[in-house]
Specification:
The complex is a heterodimer of chains A (576) and B (89).
Chain A: E1 2-4, E2 6-9, E3 12-19, H1 37-65, H2 68-81, H3 87-97, H4 101-117, H5 122-126, H6 128-142, E4 158-162, H7 167-172, E5 178-183, H8 191-199, E6 203-205, H9 210-213, E7 219-223, E8 228-230, H10 235-250, H11 253-258, E9 270-275, H12 280-286, E10 292-296, H13 310-323, E11 328-331, H14 337-340, H15 365-377, E12 383-387, H16 393-413, E13 423-427, H17 430-434, H18 436-439, E14 445-449, H19 450-458, H20 476-492, E15 495-499, H21 506-514, E16 519-522, H22 527-536, H23 539-550, H24 555-575
Parallel strand pairs in A: 3-4, 4-5, 5-6, 9-10, 9-16, 10-11, 11-12, 12-13, 13-14, 14-15, 15-16
Antiparallel strand pairs in A: 1-8, 2-6, 3-7, 7-8
Chain B: E1 2-7, H1 16-27, E2 32-37, E3 40-43, H2 47-53, E4 60-66, H3 70-82
Antiparallel strand pairs in B: 1-4, 2-3, 2-4
The chains are: A alpha/beta (576), B alpha+beta (89).
Amino acid sequence: MKLIGNGVASGTGLGPALLLERRSAPVFRRHLREGALEAEVARFHVAVTGSGAQLRSIRERLSREIGESHAYVFDAQIQMLDDPMLKDRVSGLIRAQRVNAEWALRAVSQELHLLFDSVVDEYIRERRTDLDDVVGRVQLNLAGCGGPAAELQLDEDVVLVAEELAPSQAGELDWRRVVAIVTGAGSSTHHAAILARSLGIPAVAGIDDATERIPPGALVAVDGTRGEVDLAPHPDLVRELRETRLRARATPSEACRELASVTRDGVAVRLLANVELPGEAGTAARYGAEGIGLFRSEYLLRRPGRWPTEDEQVEVYARLLRESAGPVTIRTWDVGPEDFVTDGVSGPNPALGERAWRLLGRDPRPFLTQLRALLRAGPVGALRISLPFVGGGTELAVALALIDQARSELASEGLPFAGDVPVGLNVEVPSAALTADMLAPRVDFFSVGTNDLIQYLLAVDRGDPRMSGRFQALHPAVLRVLDGVAGAASRAGIGLALCGEMAANPLHAVLLVGLGYRELSMTPVAIPAVKSAIRDVRADAASRLARRCLELSSAEEVEAALRSELAAVSTAAAKE
Amino acid sequence: MIVREVAVRNRLGLHARAAARFVQTASRFRSQVVVVSEGRRRDGKSILGVLLLAAAQGSRLTLEVDGPDEEKAVTALHELVAGGFGEET
């Protein structure tokens, strides 16, 4: 049986399900005698102090291992611990009602809940979950099972299943043993999803009642790309996933990182990383990324309408350039009206509505500020700017004119900047893809965004789990368009790159090499497997294979042709 | 006691990050800090209290600071809020 949710971090994982329930100690009301009250208050304070030490240690560990951007959640939690509305109120209740600390803490947390519920601002209302996390931790410390902030020790690989992964639980896990994450709550912008992506762990969110529907210890297969959790994986799939895992183990990324990404006939295929957080450049390099092929800059927006300032952006972009192993392509704001203004309302169909450059008419400033920041960061390294969601020549002209304006403003202000930063087009709207030959002479490179391109070409919403089987990267229409775009780039003599989940699939990556793509950008964790597939094939053979695939009339036939060809190739490679 | 009014200028208002900075700053001083917004009075050294004010951009805060270092405290807090917490306004 398969459970369908949202794939929020790509990749596959297989293992026994470990159900992570929010550990909670039962709360009883005890009546205390007068003489015991001060000791009870002191016991509460000890639990608060212990909780504070644990949170600081989690904060420190996360900030070291994953980056400062995930650590700030804990600053607010640490402040909450010492908050008079919590700490003094609980102490007061212990004394006034002569009750035990657990009971008083629960009563106060319920009072605070009521206060949070009355707030209209949804973002502030959500801080309740931080409060619950803090209160839960103090309760555990009171029960004597808070313990030091030791990692939850795991002695085998597991698939982690939780209704919701609280930040402090996440901070205590031994992530090396987690092969996949399944959560009930959460979308791709949820804290757990962002964490999973930066750690390279596949994740599926939005499985309602996950901890009730998945039996503890059951062997489950998780596909974070499709958003599927298979509760009874077919033995063939189990074998395949085990082998993948073993290969990943047997090829430590240390060794893999040193290997060149070249085909057997010596054609270099540059493998780059898709990145959402500035701190991920280091992770990407560890997986062997030769640079960053896509930085989704809109992740810098923490809340709608909160645009980072020009100087803040210069700093982020410069850091990416410094920490990346090679060139960095930064995609300009790919936002919708709901990101654009605080009270923005998206149209009836956001995927086909006002997005990215289409919002320029509302307010050009955020776009201009970003372009200025990009040009100013340019001198730090090999920066490239890519323009998302451009449908044709008119939109492209508007975007290019704004870049010219940014250049001339910076020049007249005498600020240092790089005027020659390459500017490319994200080919993801079919109208741009089909007129690629007309657009190519006006840009320095194409970066094909397959996630959106496939969705628009096939009229399949990739966020809709019911459509997951129809989202076919190998559909003949997709192959034709990819071939056409590659041809247009090559005839115009401009750069050609591809970013999207398609590049992360070794089978598809070989086909892309055959179609002439020499730069693939993907989630960092996929790089070792794609590299090994590329090292197994010859570029000339891949090209012949791609020509044959272009003649086939269904995605299933293309997939079968790829599989049989590659099976033959790897047998041949093994014999050598 | 010093009483001073200040308008919230940053676009997001007193959300989590701004509230945390407010509390951090208030806690540096020995004086008592009370924040009043739309008739609600909250302890300025309480993250929960300041968050629950849910003061949006444009709302007016009254700072009531009382204690040995009230002058310095009110100046620092006024500067922080009026400066939009160093965020976009």
